[in-house]
Amino acid sequence: MSERRTRAHVFVTGRVQGVYYRANTRDTAGEYGVDGWVRNLDDGRVEAVFEGPEDAVAAMVEWCHEGSPAADVEDVAAEYEAPQGEEGFHIRR
C-alpha cells in the first residue's frame, strides 16, 4: 500500500439521502482506514472528505459510485487536495 497521504473532496449526486449513504460511507471508510467526514447538503447531494493513503482514498472515491445498497448514484465529482490532518471519520449534521 502507498504510504503517501492524499485528500479527496467528493460530491455525490443522485438518490443518496435517506438511504443510509452516510452511515455506509463511515463504515466503509473505517474498513479502508480512511479519515474524514460525510454530510448531507440542502440540495440533495452528499459531500465527503477522505484523507489517507493514496490507494485507500482512491478506493473510497470508487466506492462512492455505488454507495449504500439503496442508493441510486448519478454522479461523483472528486477534487484531490493536500491533506489537512483529518483524524477519525465522522458524520456531520
From TrEMBL:
InterPro entries: Acylphosphatase, Acylphosphatase-like_dom, Acylphosphatase-like_dom_sf, Acylphosphatase_CS. It catalyses: an acyl phosphate + H2O = a carboxylate + phosphate + H(+). Transmembrane segments: none annotated. Residues 7-93 form the Acylphosphatase-like domain. This is acylphosphatase. Keywords: Hydrolase. It is an enzyme of class 3 (hydrolase). It comes from Haloarchaeobius iranensis. Its EC number is 3.6.1.7. The active site is at R22, N40.
